[in-house]
Each structure stands twice: as structure tokens, then as C-alpha cells.
Amino acid sequence: MAKGQRSLAGKIVAITGAARGIGRATATALIAQGARVAIGDIEVELAVQTAQELGSGTIGLPLDVTDRASFETFLAQVEGHFGPLDVLINNAGIMPVGPFIEETDRTARRMVDINLHGVILGSKLALERFLPRGRGHLVNIASVAGKGGAAGGVTYSATKHAVVGLSEAIRAEVRSTNIDVSIVMPVGVNTELYSGLQAMRGIKTAEPEDVANAIVEALATGRVDVYVPKRLIVMFRLMSLVPRSVADFFAKVLKADQVLVNPDHMLRGAYEQRTGDSSPSAPAGQPSVPAPLPEPEREKQTV
Q1: Which of 70, 78, 110, 166 is the residue whose CA sits 20 to 30 A from 241?
Q2: Domain extents in the chain
Q3: From CA 10, how far away is CA 170, in angstroms rounded?
Q4: Model-level pTM greater than 0.90?
């Protein structure tokens, strides 16, 4: 580890939507750094299975990020198992795609509830814990769509723009403390969420591990703006300096304006079915909670 970087060994990290994809890859990378990780996911059985597969005392817990009681219970269980929370990674999100005019109101509300309200709620609950302790690190997963609107993903882009703005504003409020805020903005990532979509010309689709490694680096260094790949920061800075017509031209050359257009719904079928029907297994305000861990296992996890 480079001089001046923070050790992540022993850090207590909670990750939302981490049963698969970027969340799982991030949990894996953090475990390798010695962190103690809790996975929260609406798919409880998969969260538990993922935690067991990752080992190292990782726990999988139920979490509906749109429900305060569920999120409160999740963080309380994390701290009950491991101790005071050091890091919250707001990773949970969905990305239905298609023409804006054809998007149902239900789909729009669900995206806003998960992608934005879930991040707002998680951020508040994390800060309630961080502020009295005077420390902590909040990591919010946005997207390059949070810096430039994407045709075919209008509401999704809106939620990610909001996550960027939210994170910037939170950072302004806690700047005088030792609380860090990082905003992660990846290009398309090779996960189920990105299945059946085109890649930008000249920019390779990222792997979940690329994002995970960038998050680990941000936690170790306190980096605020986390682009994946890193060279995207140069592109966005240049785009902000040139006339809109020039920016539009380069977006067309890179096919950035086509990434979410004309998706292959056959390839996206499983994802669209799962995210379209995903809902908590318990009534609102009554999150499902797993039975307490057997005492020997609980002791092993808190060593």
C-alpha cells in the first residue's frame, strides 16, 4: 500500500444490493483488504448464499432500500455483529431501458424509489452514525449517466444525476469533519444490468472488478470523484469546455448517444423480469429478518 493510504483491515463495511454484480465484486475486493463485510439485498437467500461463498465472516442480510424500517434493521444488525459502521456503500439500483414516452409511471417511480430515495435514506442513516463518531466514509454509486443524459435511459439518467448532486451537497455539509464522500461513476459494466446493450466506441465495457478496485482505492485515499475507467474524467472535463454542438458531435462519434438505445430484450429478459417484479418479501414497514445466527457462528464472525 502506498504511503499515506489508509488501511482497510478491520473496517466494518455495509454494501447494499451486493448479492451479485458490482456489489459482490466490491465485497470480494474489500475482504481481500481485511475488511469485515455485510451484504444487504432484497433477495435474501442469494445474499446469504453469496456471503457464505465469500467466507471470511461475511454476513448476508435482507434489505429493502426503499423502506426505512428495513434499512434501520439492516444497519443495526451489521453493527450488532461487527461493531460501529465505518463505510456504507449505496450500490443498489435498477436500470430499465427504452423510449421515455413508453416508460410506465410505475417503472419511473420504482427507479426513483430505489436509485435515489434508497441512496438518500442510506446516506441519512449512515450519517446518523458517522456524525457522532466524527468519522466514516459514504460511497454512492452513480454512473457516467449522472454526468451526461443517455437516450433510452431518461429516468435512469435523472436518478443518477440526482445521486451526483446529492453526494456533492452532503460532502459540502460534512466537509469540516473527518467524514468522506465518494461518488462512483462507471461506464457500462459487464453485469446483468448492462446485458443486451451496446458499448461506447473506443471505451471498453468495464468489469465489476474494475469498479470494485476503484472503490477500494477511493476508500484508501479519500478520492471524491471516481470514474471507471479513470480516463473518463478527461473526457468529461473537455466536454464541459467545448460548445454543445462539438460535444454532441463527439458523443455521436463515440456512440455514447446509442448505448441504451435499441436494447436486445431477449438478452435482457431475465434481468427485466427480475427487476420488474422485485419487491420485498414482507409487507412495507415489516422487513423480513433472518433467525439469529447460532451462537458459535456469531462468535466466529465477531472475532
Answers
A1: 166
A2: 12-279
A3: 26
A4: no
Q: H/E element holding 296?
A: helix 295-301
pLDDT at 106: 95
Average pLDDT over residues 264-268: 68
- For residue 89, the surrounding DSSP H or E stretch is strand 87-90
Backbone torsions φ then ψ of 206, nearest 5 degrees: -75, 155
The per-residue pLDDT for range 201-210, each reduced to its tens digit, is 566 777 899 9
Protein fold of 12-279: Rossmann fold (3.40.50)
| C-beta separation of 183 from 226 below 8 A | yes
Distance CA 11, CA 147 (A): 31
Rounded distance between C-alpha atoms, residue 7 and residue 26, angstroms: 16
**Helix axes of 118-133 and 68-82: crossing angle, nearest 10 degrees:** 40
CA 124 – CA 146 distance, rounded (Å): 21
- The residues, ordered by sequence, that sit 6+ positions from 235 with a Cβ below 8 Å of its Cβ are none
156 counts as catalytic: yes
Match 462507471 to its residue by C-alpha cell.
186
Q: Which is the catalytic residue, given 156, 194, 227, 271?
A: 156
Cell 433477495 locates to: 43
